[in-house]
Amino acid sequence: MGDFIQLTASDGHKFDAYLAQPNGKARGGVVVVQEIFGINAHIRSVADDYAAEGYLAVAPALFDRIEPKIELGYEAEDIEKGRDYKGRCADDAALLDIQAAQETAAAAGKVGVVGYCWGGYLAWLATTRLDGFDAGASYYGGGIGSVATEKPKCPVIFHFGEQDHAIPMEDVDTVKAAHPELAVNLYPAGHGFNCDHRGSYDATSAKIARERTLELFADKIG
């Protein structure tokens, strides 16, 4: 359904992005923010899914600032590589690329942002630090407790797994305390429960989280 295009961030950095287009007129745009595994088959399928729901979906390749065309799996070696790449990619630089993706998605109208793992953390920052987003969805954003007190510029929904080894429940409680006005959802699942390429995939939790996110996007984007 999708193809890779090239975008340019405001600092002149050129990078790839996966673009998935809906059939017919788009109801709006969605920026899909990657995990630490690059724009791999799973992230492309997520973008394709949003396109199937009528959204123009754009997934920026954030690791292109380190090395182009990074696609990782989910074995221990892949996780180690992904963490290394993430550690070398500053938040501010990633947000420049997300902003460029937002500007592309805005051709379809209002724009939402959804992110997973590292992308869940960045999706939250996109709603607090960037302009142009009308709704956000953060899935199991690692480190999100450290930025939980930032103020979003649009409605945001959070999805966390109760059995997540990577995110302490104290972080979830911090988010809840900082933003009682936002939906913070807990699921009987672990980290990465939305990814059907991983052993931690939980189909029921993923389905419910998807429905809740789509409901928010339908209300705030179209």
Structure write-up:
The protein has 222 residues and is α/β, with parallel strands linked by helices. It has 6 helices and 8 strands. It has helices at residues 41-52, 76-87, 91-105, 118-129, 169-178, 203-220; strands spanning 2-8, 14-20, 28-33, 55-60, 111-116, 135-139, 156-161, 183-187. It has an 8-stranded mixed beta sheet with strand order 1-2-4-3-5-6-7-8, sandwiched between helices. Strand 5, helix 4 and strand 6 (135-139) form a beta-alpha-beta unit. Helix 3 crosses helix 4. The radius of gyration is 16 Å and the shape is globular. The model has no long low-confidence stretch (mean pLDDT 97).
Topology (elements, then pairings):
Elements: E1 2-8, E2 14-20, E3 28-33, H1 41-52, E4 55-60, H2 76-87, H3 91-105, E5 111-116, H4 118-129, E6 135-139, E7 156-161, H5 169-178, E8 183-187, H6 203-220
Parallel strand pairs: 3-4, 3-5, 5-6, 6-7, 7-8
Antiparallel strand pairs: 1-2, 2-4
Helix pairs in contact: 3-4
Task: Briefly note the structural class of the backbone.
Answer: alpha/beta
Q: Roughly how much helix do the residues carry, as a percent range? A: 25-40%
Radius of gyration: 16 Å
The H/E string reads: EEEHEHHEHEEHEH
Major β-sheet strand ordering = 1-2-4-3-5-6-7-8
The stretches of 5 or more residues where confidence is low (pLDDT under 50) are none
The percent range for strand residues is: 15-25%
Q: Which overall shape is indicated by the principal axes computed on the Cα atoms?
A: globular
> What's the end-to-end separation, in Å?
21 Å
**What's the main sheet like?**
8 strands, mixed
